[in-house]
Amino acid sequence: MSTHSKFVLSLVASLTSLGTAMGQGVLIETDSSRRLPTPIVIRPDLPLPPLSEYAIQEININGTLNENVAQLQMSQKFVNTGSRIMEVQFVFPLPYDGAISDLTFLVDGKEYEGEIMDAKQARRIYESYVRQTKDPALMEWIGTGLFRTSVFPVPAGAERTVTIRYSQLCRQAHDLVEFTFPLKAARFSAKPIEQLRIDLLIKSDATIRNIYSPSHEIVVKRDDPNRSRVTFIAENYVPTGDFRLFYDVGDQPIGTKLLSFRQDGGDDGYFMLFVNPDMPRTSEEAVSKRILFVVDRSGSMSGKKIEQAKEALRFVVNNLRAGDLFNILAYDSAVMTFRSELQRFNEESREAAIDFVDGIYAGGSTNINAALKEAFRQIQDSDRPNYIVFLTDGLPTAGETNELRIVEDVRQQNDRDTRVFSFGVGYDVNSRLLDKLARSTGGDSHYIRPNEDIESHVSRFYSSIQAPVLTNVTIDFELDHLPASRSGHVNRIYPKESQELFAGQQLLLLGRYRAGGDGQVVIHGKAGQESVRHNYSIKFVEKSANDSYAFVARLWATRRVGEIIDEIDLHGKNQELVDELVALAKKHGIVTPYTSFLADDDMVSISREEAGRQVSQAADALLATEGREGFAQRRFKGQLQKAASAAPHLYQQALDEAAGRPIQIDNVRQIGAKTFYRSKDGWLDADVTPEQQQKVQRIERYSNAYFQMIDQLGTRFAKYLAIDEPVTVEFEGQAYSF
Question: Against a cut of 0.70, is the pTM above it?
Answer without folding.
Answer: yes
